[in-house]
Amino acid sequence: MWSSSSSANPKPGTIRQVRGATYPPLTAPPGRSGGSSNSLLSRVTSGGSSSNLAVDVSDSSGSTSNSKAPAPPPPQNSAPATPPAAANKKSTTASATPPSAAASTPMSLEVQRLRKFEMLLAAEVVDLKALRAAAWSGVPHQCRAMVWQVLLGYLPPNRAWRESTLERKRQEYYSSVPQYFDVPNAERTDGHRAMLHQILIDVPRTAPSVKIFRQEKVQRALERILYIWALRHPASGYVQGINDLVTPFYFVFLSRHLPRDRPCTEEDVEALSQQELDEVEADAYWCLSKLIDSIQDHYTDSQPGIQRMVFKLSHLVKRIDAPLHQHLENEGLQFIQVRVFESRRPSPLSLFSSCCAVSRLTPFYRPLLNNSLPSAG
Length: 377
Hints:
- It is built from 14 helices and two strands.
- It is mostly helical.
- It folds into two domains: 71 residues, no CATH class; 219 residues, no CATH class.
- It has a two-stranded antiparallel ribbon with strand order 1-2.
- Helix 6 packs antiparallel against helix 7, helix 8 packs across helix 10 and helix 11 crosses helix 12.
- The longest helix is centred in the first third of the chain and has 22 residues.
């Protein structure tokens, strides 16, 4: 029985409520007649004040009585209680919330970049300016080969012409192999024999830490690429260092045919068909040719291209950091002797993507490409 009077004496087994009073948490009283009480308090529900109480009390005989107080009007400033249905809905919504956005941001950014490149390449005519700007910070591996080929001019921007261009350029390279390489050594001039000898020495030294380039099939392909290129470009011929320029092309084009879920092995390369290897070789040759066409004077006599780049570097440092420029001059150092390393070196393939984007590759990047190619296996 509930009583609203403070002077009334409550009967045993009941709880007295004074309207407006604040009650401490209800606890089970000690058992009567030396025994323990049976679940004196089983449920308490509060709607923001102490005016609504539902209490189950068991008397000494074990019988249970359920009493509820009439709910007075809630205070004007009291917020309404959240209905159970709404609470359940909110709980369900919270449980369905995906992981934090910060954890999924790197993956989503990679997906966005990949879709951007796929959209650019899928256009009827590729927007070279937009593709070049996107490639400056690196290219996703899924489309890296085609992006390089388009930026270097090996593949045309017009999508309808790409297949026929690939077929024609590959056939042109295939026909040059018996014409220039597969000839008896006696038919070569002394200069050609000396050049081939140097290539045969340099190829085993090319990216020695990468297992792919220790494969006999791969080394024979590099020998053919470098020798045929040198014969078709007599102004410079073969110069040490050109072998370092062909390795990124060969690695990326070959990687399209190798497993990506594990390090590749010698057996993976051996399992490739001869046609796949021939296509990789031809594509690497043409991309090397396109790249060096823009910097060939870096490899001709007296290397005027390198001299020009060093002059530009000196002028840039003098304009931006005059004290450093003066210090180098006082020490008698020439800029051609200075090698600049970044504290956080970029990925070599990302760096090469940037170089393809501007169709320029200076010798300053060569150590990165030679020493930092990703290990395969």
